[in-house]
Amino acid sequence: MNLFVNLLAGALLAGAGMAQAADMTVGIEGLKNANGQVLVAVFDRAADFLKQPVRVAAVTAQQGKVRVSIAGLPAGDYALSVFQDENGNGKLDKNVIGMPVEPYGFSNDAAGSFGPPSFLDAVVHLADTGGSATITLR
């Protein structure tokens, strides 16, 4: 009996140290055409926002809206950036003054003044049971 109790306690303690992984479903709306792909970047820290994503995902563009699922994220706070790579060059194209010329957006539909929004403006919380976010491209 003691062996059973010890094994059960060990299993419970081992499980308690494991982080829960959850899935985030991202709906992207406002696609005006089906050109290229929609690229999603997920950030978990303000210091890395728009520099070093923890996850990236891509989905073929369709006019109207698309959905992408990002699996296995630990529960926590994340900010997402999205753009439609209409010409397939793998980057957000900008004009001569640095304004994006391809559709883009951020979680919470956050918008910045004269630049991107802050990490905090774009943060969404992912519960350990999973969650979703909707982003409208501009």
Short description:
The chain is mainly β and 138 residues long. The protein has helices at residues 2-16, 119-122; strands at residues 21-31, 37-43, 55-60, 64-74, 76-85, 104-106, 123-126, 131-136.
Keywords, separated by commas or semicolons:
single chain, 138 residues, mainly beta, 3-stranded mixed beta sheet, 2 helices, 42% strand, globular, disordered N terminus
Strand content: 35-45%
The helix fraction, in percent, is 10-25%
Silhouette: globular
Radius of gyration: 19 Å
Secondary structure class reads mainly beta
Walkthrough of the structure:
It is a single chain. The protein is 14% helix and 42% strand. The protein has 138 residues and is mainly beta. It is globular. The longest helix has 15 residues. The strands form two sheets. Strands 2, 3, 5, 6 and 7 form a five-stranded antiparallel β-sheet that branches. It has a three-stranded mixed β-sheet with strand order 4-1-8, with no helix packed on it.
What is this structure's SSE topology?
Layout: H1 2-16, E1 21-31, E2 37-43, E3 55-60, E4 64-74, E5 76-85, E6 104-106, H2 119-122, E7 123-126, E8 131-136
Parallel strand pairs: 1-8
Antiparallel strand pairs: 1-4, 2-3, 2-5, 5-6, 5-7
